[in-house]
Write a structure and sequence with these properties.
2 copies of one chain form a homodimer. With about 200 residues, chain A is mostly helical. The first copy, chain A, folds into 2 domains: about 5-70, Tetracycline Repressor, domain 2; about 75-195, Tetracycline Repressor, domain 2 (Orthogonal Bundle), CATH 1.10.357. Helices cover about 75% and strands about 0% of the residues of chain A. Chain A has 10 helices and no strands. In chain A, helix 5 runs parallel beside helix 8. The longest helix of chain A has 29 residues, at about 120-145.
Chain lengths: ~200, ~200
């Protein structure tokens, strides 16, 4: 199903109802995890029919990834402070530490589930990772256009590895969620110097 | 059990027998994964008694982590090429792409299992991560002593985040193992510039 057809089908429900439904999906995810989450449970919790859920989202992986994407408060594409440092700091400031801790726990669970669910891995990559990469490239392109970053700087190709490194290493190895203070220090110490800023 | 007591108890078996046992543990890990691996299966595969395994390793988490640590061919502490760039490239060259792909799949499975096994997470952190951090710090300290890296360079504190970022992002998001070529480019593009080299 194409994105346009899916959007048209989803448009039968109001944005308020859609937000309520995504909220219920994230609540269930936090309660039982991806593997134990069933479309039956989502249908019961949201007083929907399973047929409606399948018609509008296709399946569990798609519904969960759309709910995750919807939960992001701000939008990276709205950030444009005039400097790369300002843009990256604004990116970190979009979510306060409490929200970041919640999302970190959720993403950790999703990362585990991706290990043995190929459909989830594909949906997550297509709808979240690839979208973030596109947005990140636009941010970097503005920095190149302003003359802050050289167009041939080799670190440009590793932007996502650098960012995920800070976020995931903290979550996986240090067993604590990333904080705004940690990510801001990491950006200043690693990401900007690697980009020659 | 202290490390010294454990070593004394392990010393009752020969190094060859120990290597054989660790090899069997890694084979089983690859076949069934951490959660389904049992001490019974290890005992059967290695013709040991479970009592011996428990007496010598304490439990599954400790046995698996020691087997992982033992599987590393070279030793980072033996690397000393005279430059930080040379040392980091030598680190990458310790494992060829085939071994790296095998270890990456194994580590991915272990990372997933760590999510819900606190004893595995603790054993992995204590015996692998912390040891790598100590070795990495020694490598960096030599670079500081040679005047390659400033002692107050803020990226020093993020060395493990940078390295794990390259390795894990590739494994988790790009669904392919890291290669020597990839990691060497990453070190040249991100790690060394961030450290001001």
């Amino acid at each position: 199903m194409t994105e346009a057809v899916a959007a048209a089908r989803r448009s039968r429900i109001t944005p308020e109802r859609e937000a309520e439904l995504y909220g219920a999906v994230l609540d269930l995810l936090r309660e039982v995890g991806y593997d134990a989450l069933t479309m039956d449970a989502v249908a019961a919790r949201t007083r929907s029919s399973k047929a409606t859920l399948y018609r509008q989202w296709g399946g569990k992986a798609d519904l969960v990834v759309k709910a995750l994407r919807h939960s992001k408060r701000g939008h990276i594409e709205e950030i444009d402070t005039g400097t790369l440092r300002g843009d990256l700091h604004a990116l970190v400031a979009m979510e306060d530490d409490c929200v970041m801790a919640q999302n970190s726990a959720l993403l950790r669970g999703i990362a585990m589930a991706m290990h043995h669910n190929e459909d989830l891995r594909e949906a997550f990559k297509e709808q979240i990772v690839d979208a973030e990469i596109v947005n990140g490239r636009q941010m970097l392109q503005r920095a190149v256009d302003r003359g802050e970053v050289r167009a041939d700087c080799p670190a440009i190709d590793f932007m996502v590895h650098m960012m995920v490194g800070g976020f995931a290493t903290r979550t996986l190895l240090e067993d604590q969620p990333p904080t705004q203070a940690f990510l801001t220090s990491y950006i200043d110490a690693v990401v900007l110097p690697a980009l020659g800023v």
